């Protein structure tokens, strides 16, 4: 999908790998200046080589203070993609406090924090904006050994709606994209759970094992762009039909 983001500045979290990395590349190709936020510096170094002009920012978004320091003076941002997440698998009866806290801090709390920083900037500049939260079908259906991950994404559904409600008057739209399995590093690790692999095979009427990264990126770009100007508080399923039954 070729959209024009000339003159706009975007911030993408979890930019080092997978969906975030391809989103950064697509935004750069479409003319946006991009701030790429991720945890592993080597990923940002290699991404910068592919995308000249990129503004890399290395921070652990699970650390509130470090995030505040890194992003506090990020400057004007028009488009935000909250993509960073971890999918830590544990059977329900074995879930630890560490996994719970880490998952909620990275997957949900950082979305709140980064969105606050960016939205405050948009409001003070008096410019419109678009925020896309990367959720999952795991926010809508249960998946074995992913109780905490599913809970973070379920909570993200409501966070997206309330952000849309409160930021709407400031001309800031907030939506989510909810993919099914995508065979990135995260997707591969989830797919190693045979129960989940079986579900994907049974529940995708398209008879595809997984959605393509590019299909997810296309939906992100659509929601960031003015092509979706009347859409907020909503979500796009990129689910190969998982939710039809
Ligand atoms: P990957 O694991 O492939 O990439 C995630 C990226 O986020 C990595 O660059 C990772 O950096 C970064 N990241 C993770 N934690 C942090 C952190 N604390 N601070 C900064 N950066 C961090 O994941 P995907 O591309 O597959 O997933 C992207 C999004 O899509 C996530 O929100 C995920 O929940 C969602 N999704 C993915 C699906 C899938 O099957 N893959 C399905 C449905 C939704 P590092 O490697 O250095 O930690």
From TrEMBL:
SUPFAM superfamilies: NAD(P)-binding Rossmann-fold domains. Belongs to the short-chain dehydrogenases/reductases (SDR) family. The keyword Oxidoreductase applies. InterPro entries: L-xylulose/Carbonyl_redctase, NAD(P)-bd_dom_sf, Sc_DH/Rdtase_CS, SDR_fam. One of its GO terms (biological process) is glucose metabolic process. Coiled coil: none annotated. It holds the Pfam family adh_short. Keywords: NADP, Oxidoreductase. GO terms for molecular function: carbonyl reductase (NADPH) activity; L-xylulose reductase (NADPH) activity. Homotetramer. It comes from Erinaceus europaeus (Western European hedgehog). The lineage of its organism: Eukaryota, Metazoa, Chordata, Craniata, Vertebrata. This is Carbonyl reductase [NADPH] 2-like. It comes from the Eukaryota.
